Amino acid sequence: MPTAPLTIREQITNRLRDDLVSGEFPAGATLRETELASKLGVSRGPIRDAFIQLSHEGFLTYQANRGVTVRDPPNPEDRGFITMVRQQIEGYVVEKGIAELDDVGIALVERALRRLKDACDSCEANRIAQCDIAFHEAILIACGGEDFVGAWRLLCSRMLLTYTRLENYEQSYQEHAKIFESLQTKKARATIAALKANIK
Which domains are present in the chain? Predict the structure, then answer.
């Protein structure tokens, strides 16, 4: 079945999200609807909708007298805690659901891994970051963890503001390939260990 074309709102949201992940907008920067609408050649409506969506995702925040600003990345102590919680969520979902993992779920994760490989080969930092997160989300869904995805995404958005896995693209891909290998053979302990080694 062909994929439905993205709406203008979705296109703008994706564009701004990519810009935030790649560091196009520094922490604390004020984003203005009028300026971005002019730059991107759209009305203010899609920009406003994108601001709302990205605020829900944790990338932006509204501050009185300042408007919409880019959130500061977490400090090292907070990032350590966020990392631990994310590891706990993914590990719990895998441990609980891996036994019921079916061919459809495996195929979902495998497609996400292929997209990550393509991103790593392209050396596009923001694309790699997004595909990295999409791979982990595919695991959550494949293992029946849909109820955790909303909270998990908020944690991921905070980590993406200081994405640090971009120094060695091939190493990043190999870490994810190792996760998939263990998941595919339904080895819960090995999968969880590989996830924890990757989530930093």
Answer: 8-70 (1.10.10.10), 76-198 (1.20.120.530)
